Amino acid sequence: MHDKSVAQLIAGLRAKQFTSVELSRCFLDRIAALDPGYNSFITVDETAVLAAAAAADERIAAGEAATLTGIPIAHKDIFCTNGIRTSCGSRMLDNFVPPYDATLIDKFNREGAVILGKTNMDEFAMGSSSESSYYGPVRNPWDSSLVPGGSSGGSAAAVAALLAPAATGTDTGGSIRQPAAFCGITGIKPTYGRVSRLGMVAFASSLDQAGPMAHSAEDCALLLNSMAGYDPLDSTSSELPAEDYTARLGDSLQGLRIGLPKEYFGEGLQAGTARRIEQALKEFEAQGATLVEVSLPHSHLTIPTYYVIAPAEASTNLSRFDGVRYGHRCSDPIDLHDLYTRTREEGFGAEVKRRILIGTYALSAGYYDAYYKKAQQVRRLIKQDFTACFEQVDVIAGPTTPGPAFALGAKSDDPVAMYLEDIYTLAVNLAGLPGMSIPAGFVDGKPVGLQLIGRHFGESQLLNVAHRYQLATDWHLQRPAGAIGGAA
Amino acid sequence: MAIEQDEIEKIAELARIRIAPGQIGEVTQRITEILGMVDQLQAVDTSDVEPMANPLDAVQRLRADEVTEENRRDAFQAIAPAVENGLYLVPRVVE
Fold this sequence. Notes:
The complex is a heterodimer of chains A (488) and B (95).
Chain A: H1 6-14, H2 20-34, E1 41-43, H3 46-61, E2 72-76, H4 103-111, E3 114-119, H5 153-160, E4 166-170, H6 177-183, E5 186-189, E6 210-214, H7 217-227, E7 257-261, H8 271-286, E8 290-294, H9 302-317, H10 336-347, H11 350-363, H12 369-389, E9 395-399, H13 415-419, H14 426-431, E10 435-443, E11 446-453, H15 459-472
Parallel strand pairs in A: 2-3, 7-8, 7-9
Antiparallel strand pairs in A: 1-3, 4-6, 5-6, 5-10, 9-11, 10-11
Chain B: H1 5-14, H2 24-38, H3 73-77, E1 83-84, E2 87-88
Antiparallel strand pairs in B: 1-2
């Protein structure tokens, strides 16, 4: 049962082919047997998993099941879980056991879904390789010498290795889409404000958004149905009613206009990835869609814009970690200043410190206009590029990343090279748009991701386009050799 | 734009992050590289562009000023490094 889709698992539970306890046990056994090779989980509480599964089985037996009742789901270790350690991949929160649930976790709990475990990630979601975790790097199930992408690399690897049927992630600049691409799975970053940020450890508040990661668009739609919606406790949450994201999955693509930004197919895109993307686009044409060349003329400015705005917001958000109320505290502080500075020296890793310092600089007196205000102005130009494109086309398509997964250690000493990994994904967050990555083939055995970008609150259309592609192709059904077999 | 080592020390102090003396050089170099990349922004003409703080140009929602949360001080202080009589403890601030 470890290789069934979420949709199939829901049907199996309803038909009493297996129980949630059996299903959860299967994934727990697989995690115990295989995860030492991937390091995709930080925390797995077996007792709590089996208790939640037993409760779900009772609910199913009573005929009171909701859609996801009894389905085990892995959660990025950025979502606060009441009574379960939430580390955010950082020494700073190594001892943090939240006294409350994130809204997203609360929604899954109400559905009766089972929290399978908390997945590994780049520290405070700052990274594109899942190497900066305090708990060690995650390895790509397709080739353990490669990174799984990041920052939601643990979630992506867990799904790809069939250690979880589905997972949650967060995406501030590509952190759902890029690991989904590197691990050969499907992931969607919804529109900014579509999923509540309450209880999601904040990185860059005007960019952060949570979304589902699974094998297929259909499974992502099932999860998104439980995640999306207005939350009065998140002041940036959208009041627009959420939809049934499965309703339009099967719609025809006849007449769909797909925009191809010329900037996403130029210099920097690796040839093998380009060929896979071109092949995928032919499938959309075969289904009646029209391909239209479009332009996003400010694309070359997305990385500099992002690397002012995200660190500026991060430096503000991470000021809360002071060693006073929760989290790490240095030992024997000589005074309050020593308590703050040494706690933060010890608690944060190198990349997190760099971003706090850059953000502090960009917001400091004398530099605010030149950096922060300037970046906010260019951010508007980047958003306007998309607005102009969506006057011509319904969705935008292109590569998720310039190339497939790279080797562990290849970029970990060069921040700017690492930042370039997100060249095609950052603009989507700056503009607040929904974006997704779906498997589109392989280059030398390494998965390639096709990115789809939609209009604000256009999640249903993106999932529809992805689902129609997945009905006609089987890239999303390919599995890494190491994931096949084992406990079934 | 190059950034001097003493400027990094000043920022680190503002950010309340101690940087070990042996690491200041490397931190300065990395941040100089990142700021060099960011400096591409200076070439863009943004004279008539309104800064964008929220991608949906949303504004802060207001609500009635009513008590909506219960007091959970005990639960929140249970995870604090040091508390006494309902207060968070820090090193002596006033002599």
